[in-house]
Amino acid sequence: MFAFAIRRLIQAAGVMLVVALISFLMFRFVGDPVNQLVGVDTTPEQRAQLREDLGLNDPVYVQFARFVGKAARFDFGISYQIKQPVAQLIASRLPATLELSFVSAIFALLVGLPMGVYTGLYRDTLLSRLFLAISLVGISLPTFLIGILLIFIFSVNLGWLPSFGRGETVSIGGFWTTGLLTRSGLVSLILPAITLGLFQMTLIMRLVRGEMLEVLRTDYIKFARARGLSRRAINFGHALKNTLVPVITITGLQIGSIIAFSIITETVFQWPGMGLLFLQAVQNVDIPIMAAYLLLIAFLFTLINFIVDLLYVAVDPRIRLGGTAG
Amino acid sequence: MNRQSFLSRAAGAAVRASFVAGALTAATFSANAQDKTLRFAFQGTLNALDPYSLNETFTLGMLGNVYEGLTKRDKDLTIIPGLAESWETIDPLHWRFHLRQGVKFANGNAFTADDVLFSAERVLADGSDLKTRIPADSVWTKVDDHTVEVELKTPNPILHYEWDTWYIMDKEWAEAEGATKPVSAKDTNPGQAAYKANGTGPFTIESHEPGVKTIFKTSADWWGTVEHNLDGVVFTPIASDATRVAALLSGDVDLIEPVPVQDIDRVNSDPNTEALTGPELRVIHLGFNQMRDELPTSNIKGKNPFKDPNVRKALYQAIDIEAIDKRVMRGLATPVPLLIAPQLHDAADLKRWPNDVEAAKKLLADAGYPDGFSVGMDCPNDRYVNDEQICQAVVSMLAKIGVTVNLNAQPKAKYFAKVLAPGGYDTDFYLLGWTPGSFDSWNVLVNLATCRDETGKGGPFNLGGYCNPKVDELAKQIVVETDTARRNELIQQAYKIMLDETSHIPLHQQSLAWGKRKNLDIAQRADDQVLFYWAKLN
Amino acid sequence: MPYFTGEESKARAGVAAGDTAGRGAFARMLDSDIWYSFRHSPLTIGAAIVSLILVLAALFAPIVAPHDPFDPASISIMDSFYPPVWSADGQSGFLLGTDDQGRDVLSTILYGMRISLAVGFASVLLAMMLGVTLGLVAGYVGGVTDTIIMRIADVQLTFPAILTALLIDGVARALAGPQAYDEIVFGVLVLAIGLSFWVQYARTVRGSVLVEANKEYVLAARLIGLRPVTIMFRHVLPNVLGPVLVIATINLALAIITEATLSFLGVGVPSTQPSLGTLIRIGNDYLFSGEWWITIFPGITLAILALAVNLLGDWLRDALNPKLR
Q1: What does the alpha-carbon distance between residue B413 and residue B400 come to, in Å, rounded to a whole number?
Q2: How far apart are CA B319 and CA B285, in angstroms?
Q3: Residue B417 CA, distance from chain mean position
Q4: Min CA distance, C234 vs chain A (Å)?
Q5: Residues C77-97 pLDDT 10s
Q6: Dihedral sign, Cα of residue B402, residue B404, residue B409, residue B413
Q7: How far apart are alpha carbons C99 and C83 in whole angstroms?
Q8: pLDDT (mean) for B198-225
Q9: Contact between chains at C288 and B389 (C-beta distance less than 8 A)
Q10: How far apart (Å, rounded) are the C-alpha atoms in residues A91 and B187?
């Protein structure tokens, strides 16, 4: 177990290093950093000086080592556009994105799970077909279109919910702002969370349905039936329990992708999170923010993967530690 | 028939629903209205708060609520006293400014002549984007605590025209905050002035999160007469047009800028909102690269078709500006013959070349391009009102005379990085808008029409490098001419030369379009600055 | 990759796969349960017909469409904002109305769908070829090769599709310069979307190969001295084609939506040659002002297209999964 954890850790570190390399190459070679920093009236001498100061004349591997060293200390330099330290900018935007992502994930789970169970148990009822149809429409409509339509209906025409932003936020301990404690913060969350969570919801629903169908065919469910257990006990005591492990795993893995997909939702709802910051950075070629964002997302993913791997081993001793069958 | 009636019924239901919603939201938000906080949303972000970092209308306008210049401009843009109570020209080379007494900065420091001298030095320092505000060779001396004298090397009758956006900073505060130099992008440790503000104006900044939210509070002891009734202002950037309009309609904000032209009707039809429109002083124009010997984006090799005035005129006459203004701008733009708005300079007998496709074809054929040619066009897509749509319309109009235009529409950051000096003026054909900061023709000529070299010495925003020594000569005479009638005549001469040889294609003067809740009164100034001290929430 | 030498092997991969899997499997398919389940699912038949109609309409857009929206000389700004023909102000020449530039919405949808479908198919093909090849190699060869490929897959998984696509697009844009970019935008989009989707194929194929490789027929094939490449493509590949086909179908819908999203975010195809996503982005600006047809019709088309393809994918997955029958 311990050796396995160490091995996975080393692999995770390797993955991070590769991402760091991509991020560094982008930082260094996509557009000239000096051109990004200076104004119209900067002389060639000043440019050369700046180039020297920034260490752009050192060998590339030295620059990369410096980049990794700084990244490890969360030092990503100054944003070209906003002129604040990137780490500080991301830290101030992180709570907004994480809150939105977690609320979306919970929404997706709470709605997707029962729908999945129902459609799995009663394959051919009208309601099942309706749920499946809704889920298909859900994944066939692009996120941005759903967001716009929700705003159009619930903010403009009905006037029930705010159309943009986070509402009022409360600062906790000086480093975290939360919208979960105020009424306006909570109502502001509804539309973006639904928009962002809809895709994951359909994913979970279909996953649960598939798993339920598989489990219900297994021998031990048949035995349970033969033993005369009640439908309820079989469905929820046995079948659902067995589907939960993969569902929770997938949901966990999806959190990273929810965070990434929040780029679109945050754009539509003007949600002041990292995604919006990233998109603005892409539009303005603000490379330090782009590089830092990529590293952060990669880090979150690697972390989640790592935890899921460990949990798997802890939960299911049948999984062989390392090595491949081939 | 069925479908139509269904749709109209659905629309009716939606309208009814929005009436109910209006009542609901009014109740929900009345609590907010009580404390008289103006909620304002703009399409762009407010970044650094250093008043010398960025020479851009919106940023300067927002900072104009907090900082003040020696002069100010009234609702109709006439120059009025600001931090200087009065001024006089002793002779063409010596100006004297009498400073207002008893004015305090937000931190309580008194405003004195030392602050003016410090600000003059700071605005010329490295990293400042506002260096053109005062002549670099001017000499500033303190006569007494409330009198300043400026000595010039050459006469300059419009010296103070742009001083309403040259904001005076507190010397002691800047020194204490380590902000004696303007914060430029290359500083790795930007001074606090980048995030804080300390001005003499009617508002102070309580908190500032770039790209998220900026909170203004009313300053308790401002020297001027208070016209507004606000307790404060919350500013939020909302980039998406649809979201911004939705926020206004749903009552989440009181004021938005801009309202997309196509949404003006909708904003006006809502019982709680209305659009505030008026002519803006910005003129949108097209420019040609006349410096390159060969256009890299063109299929014509070995020569540059744009060097021929007849080719430029052919393109001019192929463009139906009336159609663009009617359809793309929905009537909210006025075609102009010159690169300056008619409010700032009367074009008199100078008229636009008429739209005439046949004449354009003939001009092209006579110039040696009977089958037309191809060329690439650069266009911003988030800077001016419907900029990309205008460019697209131009593309299809030019296609009708055989000129194939490959459009490259980009966000303004990338667009400006390509077409301005740092990008090496890399454009063959472009769309640009210009508002003269001094509201005067000299600014237009010297920025857009005087010769320049590759590095941008000369007319810095003359992207195409149009060059006629006669125009340069006229510009030199205009800046020192103190007789108004004679000066106007020289200006007219310069514009006539430019029109005759189609230096640029002036398109139109776009309109301002703000959207507001009906309970808000605010003055809209033609330079598009949003000034909260003229706002009243009822 | 010791068993492959560039282009030659790629071509061989295609031929081999086509031979066995294509003809043989297809013939088997017709008299199989799959064909039976197809005929007995009206929804699937409907989806197949709709997909076919849309693909054909897009393919023959130059013949079917009443106007050519990509020819700037043929459009006039004065034709802009006509509502659909059944509305009061509708113009008979423009069935679904016109957009902000005076382009016929119906024609623009047909031409736009062409781009959306082309990007979709090409990127799925790219992802499939890349993923299947790497998955086969990883599973069959094993060892260090396997580890390297799967670690690359891990890194790739680290970036969600939309982020990978944004990244590749941004880098290409910066490197090519804007004018050149417009010429290669199609390729960049295919690359950006294709590269974000290969991992799924690789993982699935590798998993199946691990199972198949230890089966007796593969061992037998090895014993009689067949070359690994032959074994892989002739014997192993046909057995994993089912899941690959399912992934490909669902990915096609995803690819079309991803392209639309990229275009909506403003990094996709230029607005002079709009895809469905670009059309929705343009029309989005006019949704509040009452010109709903500019965004709603392309939106509906996109949704129907994605829905039909998804339905086919769903059916295919259920049909190929014997446990569910």
Answers
A1: 31
A2: 12
A3: 18
A4: 19
A5: 888 888 888 887 778 888 888
A6: negative
A7: 9
A8: 90
A9: no
A10: 21
Residue B408 pLDDT greater than 90, yes or no: no
| Nearest-CB residue to C307 (from A136, A285, A305) | A136
State whether CATH 1.10.3720.10 applies to domain A97-139+195-324: yes
Q: C18: Cβ–Cβ under 8 A, 6 or more apart, which residues?
A: none
Q: Which of A5-14, A281-290, B179-188 has the highest mean pLDDT?
A: A5-14
Of A18, A290, A324, the CB nearest to C210: A324
- Tell me if chain C has a CB within 8 Å of the CB of A30: yes
Q: What is the pLDDT of residues B216-268, one digit of tens each?
A: 999 988 999 999 999 999 999 887 787 788 889 888 899 999 998 888 988 99
User: β-strand A170-172 against A176-178: which pairing, if any?
Assistant: antiparallel
Chain B residues whose beta carbon lies within 8 Å of the beta carbon of residue C71:
399
Within 8 A of C290 by CB-CB distance, chain B residues are 265-266
- Residues of A within 8 A of C163 (CB-CB) are 260, 263, 294, 297
pLDDT of A1 reads 64
CA distance B38 to chain A (A): 15
- Residue B209 at interface with chain A, using a CB cutoff of 8 Å: yes
Residues C80, B405: C-beta atoms closer than 8 Å? no
A92 chain-B contacts, CB cut-off 8 A? 209, 212
Return the sign of the alpha-carbon dihedral for residues B230, B234, B240, B242. negative
- B190–A163 C-beta distance less than 8 A: no
Looking at per-residue confidence, does C306 or B3 come out higher?
Answer: C306
Chains touching chain A, criterion 3+ CB pairs below 8 Å:
B, C
Q: What percent of chain B is modeled with pLDDT above 90?
A: 58
Name, of A282-286, B35-39, C279-283, the range with top average pLDDT: B35-39
Q: Distance from A79 to chain B by nearest Cα, in Å?
A: 9
- Packed helices A126-140 and A86-121: angle between N→C axes, nearest 10 degrees: 150
Distance of alpha carbon A90 from alpha carbon C76, whole angstroms: 46
Please report, for chain A, the start and end positions of each structural domain, with discontinuous segments joined by +: 31-73, 97-139+195-324
A202 touches chain C (CB under 8 A): no
How does pLDDT run across A25-55, given as a tens digit for each residue? 776 766 566 665 555 445 566 667 777 777 7
CA dihedral angle for residue C315, residue C319, residue C324, residue C325, rounded to 10 degrees:
120
Q: Are C124 and C116 in contact (CB under 8 A)?
A: no
ipTM reported for the complex, 2 dp: 0.72
What are the start-end ranges of the H helices in B270-356?
Answer: 309-318, 321-323
A83, A97, A188: best to mutate for the B interface, most B CBs within 10 A? A83
Q: Is A130 on the interface with C (CB under 8 A)?
A: no
* pLDDT class of B361 with cuts at 50, 70, 90: very high
What values do phi and psi take at A85, rounded to 5? -60, 135
Q: Would the CB atoms of A283 and C284 count as touching at under 8 Å?
A: no
Quick one: tokens of A211? 């798993």
Confidence of residue A322 (pLDDT cuts 50, 70, 90): very low
pLDDT at A84 over 80: no
For tokens 């260096």, name the residue. B131
Tell me which of C120 and C325 has the higher pLDDT. C120
Rounded average pLDDT over A259-277: 85
The pTM of this model reads 0.77
